[in-house]
Amino acid sequence: MSSQVTPMPDTPALAATHLGKDLVGWIWAVVAAFGAYFCMYAFRKPYTVAPFEEMTFWGVGFKTLLVTAQVIGYTVSKFIGIKVVAEMPPQRRAGVLVLLIGLGELALLGFALVPPPWNLGFLFLNGLPLGIVFGLVLGFLEGRRATEALTAGLCLSFIVADGGVQAAGLWLLQQGVDKFWMPFLTGLLFLGPQLLFVWMLTRIPPPSARDVALRSERVPMTLEDRQRLFYRYAPGLILIVLAYLLVTILRSIRNDFKREAWESLAYEVDPTAFLTSEMLVGLGVMLATATAVFIRNNRCAFFLALLTAIAGACLVLLGLVGLAFAWLDPFGFMVVIGLGLYIPYVSVHTTLFERLIALLRDRANLGYLMYLADAFGYLGAVAVLLARYFFPVTSNFRSFFLGACWLIGLGTVALLLAALCYFALRLQPGKATVSEA
Fold it and tell me: How many whole angstroms separate alpha carbon 374 and alpha carbon 188?
């Protein structure tokens, strides 16, 4: 008689136990990723709420110089990240994360110690390491059955964190903290939680065999891997990257000049308004993007994400119409604009590239495609900051802001519709390069 034991099928109770364990693990991962990236913003964004408007150097507003210096550093970091994040071994992520955060905080100390305008260089040095943080955190979440939900939680952090850390910075200013020391002290407040959340990231187990079967294995990529993936689908990828570039430009204008945007709409600046508006945007974006986790078919999920991104860009246009006809007050307008730009922005992060890799099953990882998009997105943000000064259309910030919303909303819709058509033709069912898992 054979001694082999036939495995018993899962009972409903056993299946429920597995689901319970999965849910606990997913909640842990979301909290860890959300917290790690939320805290990073405390080392990057608090200075944007400081009253630097009265200071000018070389005929340029000091705040414009600060934002430009940091965004240039952040942009250089994104181009570096195309290689660094794509090639990063999983076991090195946490240590590199801590190192990058520490370098960002040291740069803020230099910003406080060195007098203006010479402290501009320290904001460039601040952006240089912090631009790689997102890709390292993302690496802990990709290639899983629940990646969309996990990544939506991560993306909620950079929607909410902007208002959250600005509120913290504004509170420190109200306590009498010097505006040059405020960014460094804000970072210190968040340093302990930052280390805790990085440790939590290290406790997330790797993707299971079932995850790999459904979403493909995610591995470090060589230069040859990156070139092969890009050139095979270059037209579609370029269209998505261009749409992402436009959305990143509008996101940069809305966030880095948040105070000016609210004031231009005749709305009283208040820390509570910053945080409340971003919370509403974050929750709306999560509902619009995280539900893709329930779609098992990678092809369906990919095209639904493209349609969701197009619908989001249309919200920008609807928000402008609502403001023009007084259907929306300034607060409602800023929320709708936030939804309209973050839905396509987050769709790229959570679903588009994740499901494209799962669909193609090439040797790839999410970090490479995200940093390809991010690099050019932030390059566009630098360009618009420079253009705003050297080629001013108007000195009225309201006109500049609303005009940018119209141009970017229309452009994003057109580019994403073109990408939809390209991939609908390129990824037809039955082609050898496509998996219908």
Answer: 27
